[in-house]
Amino acid sequence: MLYLKSLLIHLKGQMQYKMSFVFLLIGQFLTAFSAFLTIYVLMQRFHTVKGFTYPQVLLCFAVVLLSFSLAECFFRGFDTFSGIIANGQFDRILVRPRSAVYQVLCAKIELTRLGRLLQAVLVMVYAIPHSGVIWTADKIGVLVLMILGGVAVFSALFVLYAGICFFTIEGLEFMNIFTDGGREFGSYPISVFGESVLKFCTYVIPLALFQYYPLLWLLDMTDKVFYAFTPLIGALFWLPALLVWRLGVKNYVSTGS
Amino acid sequence: MKAYMSFFRIRFLGGLQYRIAALAGVATQLAWGGLYVLLYKAFYEADASAFPMTFRQVTDYNWLRQAFLTLLFVWMLDRETLESISSGAVAYEVVRPTDLYLMWFTKNVAMRLSRAVLRCVPVLLFAFLLPAPYGLSLPAGIEGFIGFFVTLFLALGNVVAFVMLLYIASFFTMNPTGLRVLMLSLTEFLSGGLIPLPFMPPLLQKILEFSPFGAMMNMPLRAYSGSLSGPALWTGAALQVFWLIVMAGGGRLWMGRALRRLQVQGG
């Protein structure tokens, strides 16, 4: 399969600079580590926030970080898409007999981003037994669903970002609020930021759908069973993202090279 | 001296050209700042007695940090400087009859100032207009006002002197990115970029306040609201001067050694 082939090429390519790869991996790990330290320091001082304990916040942190790093690793091509447009590389993509989305997906796979993933896994290993959840098969299933839903929402955000690049040519720094901001502030259950932010993250950018609502169900803080399935609704965010992307491709005028 | 003034002017005026980028940056900083305020509000509601500063001091800290982000965060590196090291273009700069350290220092200060000029006014305006505990309040008296400006410029000096050390370190390795990312994220945390130093465990706070990290944004952002005042403020400012001299002096010596064994590859 083509995707596996390009994955292998990226792996081999990045392994040519082993020291740099290791340093970047550690660097990524440590960047995420300062986010963890922040939570640690604040939660040691305050113990709870909006009714969530330290391990419960960590569980949330780990889910968001895990899905973000997966999305960033495999959808990096969309995140850096403004570069592909600016240097005219997209013209080459258009003349090839494969879909553009698929090719951009293959164009960049950044495995160093997995440094964050490692950290997310470590934090999750700590949080899972301490969060007070009685882990049964259905709860484990929902946890997996949360992570997959998160990957879907974050990757859709990257695609949306790339779609907007068709119109602006440059990358839009503003979109960082949703991607990087979603990662940083998503470390806490969204309800911490109050009613209006929660509404925004439910109906506009569905960050809360894979994070806050299913977390409530995991922690037995709600009896609404459908909260467990909200990550699936969140995954629908791919539809508007793809729509913007399609519109962008249709209106694409080459910037030349 | 005149040459360095020109370098300053070129970079400063050049930086002022990117207005749309600045506007997008402002929007990002406002959203980011707003979310921080909401986060601390939630913690305040969780346990007000565990707050080491008043809520107003925390929001002041937050909004000033957003407004002067480009002055105070170490990760605002100058791409031109980095590229000249990795591409070897630095060779041209070395043969000029100017002091490379001073030149880069002025360029970096100019780059940061030009970005700050474009961004700080809208952020400050927005923060002033927000309702009472959430927005930016007036400075804590004359001392807070003067203390803020004095320590802000000293902090800028410390940040740039620190960043210079990172540039110089790039001379010694072919692959500086990893090390740089590592240092930057650590410094962001240790200097109070993520949480104000008073929120940290007491021992760590003490150590950091005496370290160069405490001489960065910690000083001006706390001086403004009176979280640091009186003798504590002015000994802090003295420490800033001390670290500035140590880091800039050390950096200049180190750069001299780096240039002596500089090898430029290719041509």
Topology:
The complex is a heterodimer of chains A (257) and B (267).
Chain A: H1 2-15, H2 18-46, E1 48-49, E2 52-53, H3 54-74, H4 76-79, H5 81-86, H6 89-95, H7 100-107, H8 114-130, H9 137-168, H10 176-185, H11 195-203, H12 212-218, H13 230-235, H14 238-250
Antiparallel strand pairs in A: 1-2
Helix pairs in contact in A: 1-7, 2-3, 2-8, 3-8, 3-9, 9-14
Chain B: H1 2-15, H2 19-46, H3 55-67, H4 69-72, H5 79-87, H6 90-95, H7 100-129, H8 141-171, H9 177-190, H10 202-210, H11 218-225, H12 230-260
Helix pairs in contact in B: 1-7, 2-3, 2-7, 3-7, 3-11, 7-8, 8-11, 8-12
Q: Would you give an account of this structure?
A:
The complex is a heterodimer of chains A (257) and B (267). With 257 residues, chain A is mainly α. Chain A has one domain (2-250). Chain A is built from 14 helices and two strands, in the order ααββαααααααααααα. A two-stranded antiparallel sheet of chain A has the order 1-2. In chain A, strand 1 and strand 2 (52-53) form a beta hairpin. Chain A is globular and about 55 Å long. Chain B is an all-alpha fold. Chain B has one domain (2-260). Chain B is 74% helix and 0% strand. Chain B contains twelve helices and no strands. Chain B has helices at residues 2-15, 19-46, 55-67, 69-72, 79-87, 90-95, 100-129, 141-171, 177-190, 202-210, 218-225, 230-260. The two termini of chain B are 31 Å apart. Chains A and B meet through helix 2, strand 1 and helix 10 of A and helix 2 and helix 9 of B.
Summary tags:
heterodimer; A: 257 residues; mainly alpha; two-stranded antiparallel sheet; 14 helices; globular; B: 267 residues; 0% strand
- Give helix % range of chain B: over 70%
Low-confidence stretches of chain A: none
User: For the CA atoms, what is the radius of gyration of chain A?
Assistant: 19 Å
Q: How would you classify the helix and strand content of chain B by structural class?
A: mainly alpha
Number of domains of chain A: 1
Write the element-wise H/E pattern of chain A from the N-terminal end onward: HHEEHHHHHHHHHHHH
Count all strands of chain A and give the number: 2
The number of helical elements of chain A comes to 14
Rg of chain B is 19 Å
Largest sheet, spatial ordering of strands of chain A: 1-2
Number of DSSP strands of chain B?
0
Shape of chain B: globular
Instruction: Give average pLDDT of chain B, whole number.
Output: 89
* Gap from first CA to last CA of chain B: 31 Å
**Total helical elements of chain B:** 12
Helix and strand element order of chain B: HHHHHHHHHHHH
The biggest beta sheet of chain A reads: 2 strands, antiparallel
What oligomeric assembly is this protein in? heterodimer
Return residue spans of chain B where pLDDT drops below 50 for at least 5 consecutive residues.
none
Molecular shape of chain A: globular
